[in-house]
């Protein structure tokens, strides 16, 4: 690698690192795993920087590396054996509907890795079907079907959660202490939480 291309790589990564880190967080649902994914992506991009910088869209090339690495990590047994969930979830910005945001976060985290990647590329990165297909190395029809399945799953999960919340609100209104399972995003175990607490 030429000395000036090393500086070019450094400048590119310095400018793009925040957006790549946010993309990695959306995929991984955990800041620590997102940072590991970003580090791996940066390493692989550095190795093939001549090809990446010569691509039609360097951003699309690097984004494809990041998504492929995320999917590759999910296929290995390591991601299923190791789960570091003792840290609280960090949020970038407060939203008006905290419960809804946490429900959506948990629902997206429950999706299979490929469906999550499709949703992040389509709705967070704002890629169209063909660009998403190119990034994932599949056909546009696969993107469409994975998007439909992921959205149907999200509707089912979030719809079931709102039905459960409505039932607990009715029970709380009648003076009964209703309890519902409370699962924090990224935490695999549920605990009972009383609505009156």
End-to-end distance, in Å? Answer: 61 Å
What's the domain count? 2
Looking at this structure, what is the CATH superfamily of the largest domain?
Winged helix-like DNA-binding domain superfamily/Winged helix DNA-binding domain
Estimate the helix proportion, in percent: 55-70%
CATH fold-level topology of the largest domain = Arc Repressor Mutant, subunit A
Q: What is the general shape? A: globular
Structure class: mainly alpha
The DSSP helix count reads: 9
Strand content: under 5%
Strands, total number: 2
CATH domain class of the largest domain: Mainly Alpha
Strand line-up of the largest beta sheet: 1-2
**SSE pattern:** HHHHHHHHHEE
Name the poorly predicted regions: 164-197
Largest sheet: 2 strands, antiparallel
CATH architecture of the largest domain: Orthogonal Bundle
Average predicted local confidence, pLDDT: 76
Radius of gyration, in angstroms, nearest whole number: 20 Å
Task: List the SSEs and their pairings.
Elements: H1 3-28, H2 31-47, H3 49-53, H4 58-75, H5 78-81, H6 98-110, H7 113-124, H8 129-136, H9 140-173, E1 179-182, E2 191-194
Antiparallel strand pairs: 1-2
In short:
The chain has 197 residues and is mainly alpha-helical. The chain is built from nine helices and two strands. The radius of gyration is 20 Å and the shape is globular.
What does this structure look like?
There is one protein chain. The protein is mainly alpha-helical. It contains 9 helices and 2 strands; from the N terminus they run αααααααααββ. It folds into 2 domains: 1-81, Rna Polymerase Sigma Factor, Chain: A; 96-197, Winged helix-like DNA-binding domain superfamily/Winged helix DNA-binding domain (Arc Repressor Mutant, subunit A). It has a two-stranded antiparallel sheet. The chain is 70% helix and 4% strand. It has helices at residues 3-28, 31-47, 49-53, 58-75, 78-81, 98-110, 113-124, 129-136, 140-173; strands at 179-182, 191-194.
């Amino acid at each position: 690698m030429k000395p000036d291309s090393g500086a070019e790589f450094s400048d590119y990564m310095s400018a793009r690192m925040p957006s790549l880190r946010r993309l990695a967080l959306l995929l991984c649902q955990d800041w620590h795993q997102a940072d590991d994914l970003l580090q791996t992506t940066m390493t692989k991009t550095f190795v093939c920087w001549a090809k990446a910088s010569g691509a039609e869209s360097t951003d699309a090339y690097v984004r494809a590396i990041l998504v492929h690495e995320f999917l590759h990590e999910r296929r290995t047994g390591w991601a299923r054996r190791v789960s570091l969930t003792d840290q609280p979830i960090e949020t970038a910005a407060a939203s008006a509907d905290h419960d809804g945001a946490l429900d959506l976060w948990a629902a997206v985290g429950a999706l299979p890795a490929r469906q999550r990647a499709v949703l992040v590329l389509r709705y967070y990165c704002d890629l169209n079907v063909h660009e998403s297909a190119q990034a994932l190395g599949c056909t546009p029809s696969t993107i469409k079907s994975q998007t439909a399945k992921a959205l149907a799953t999200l509707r089912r999960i979030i719809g079931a959660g709102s039905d459960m919340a409505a039932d607990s609100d009715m029970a709380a209104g009648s003076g009964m202490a209703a309890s519902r399972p409370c699962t924090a995003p990224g935490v695999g175990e549920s605990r009972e939480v009383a609505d009156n607490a």
